[in-house]
Amino acid sequence: MNQSKKIKLAITVTSIDALSKAFVVLRGFEESIIKAAELGYDGVELAVKHPDDIKDIDLSRILSQNNMEVSSISTGLVYAQNGYMFTEPDDEKRGKAIKLYKELIDMASDFGQIVNIGLLRGYIGDKDPVETETKFIAVARELCSYAEKKGVTIILEPVNRYEIDFINSVEEGVKLLEKIGFPNLKLMPDVFHMNIEDRTIGGELAKHIKHAGYIHLADSNRLAPGWGHTDFDDIFKHLKMADYKGWLSVEVFPKPTPMEAATQAVRFLKPYFEEYNR
After folding, report:
1. What is the pTM of this model?
2. Strand pairing category for 153-156 and 69-74
3. Which of 111, 129, 235, 238 is most buried, judging by how many CB atoms fall within 10 Å of its CB?
């Protein structure tokens, strides 16, 4: 892999037996890595529910043979499969969530050095908003301290109001990061969610670029880029102006089929990446 590249393109993948509602493009870790490499991706974002998901495959060998990298470890399945949340009122359940996340940090220290927090953060619901935020801040600081020793970055994803009621916009995410105060905690803006929650997409990305550690790409309808009305010209123009360096990952509906979605995304996005990295 050419390490001089400013930005690299990944795609979300998971195991064959992951929940049907797992929000990924390709399934089967080994097969997905091979397919992604053939299509021209630089890496894969691994959606796992537990580190044991990869215990039966030689991930290092497969990545090396296909000149691929792990861009990050995604934790959506930890929430979906177990119902774990960092704002869980029950101390025992919250403790289990923290323990499992630390195991994923250990995994990321070998693969990718990045772990995300999406819906796993939990929601407010009928709980007190200040108490919920305080609980999350305490958990985030514990996890960031643990991850810092492992050389791992944690990325917090703002998610739109229709999916969760806690940390919806990039600006809200930035304010929370500043309260937590750890340099290895970054934001994971997702342009699909930004299309709903933020004033602009490109402009907000550029404004808060120092806090962005990873970016999710999807079109306005959550299909592959190029199949909606998102202005990717503007997004990449602002990222270039702000001199973003790092991963951008395709997280879209696997429609009409996973391979058609993966193919469309890379075909549409590659010219932007080639121009950006000149």
Report:
1. 0.96
2. unpaired
3. 235
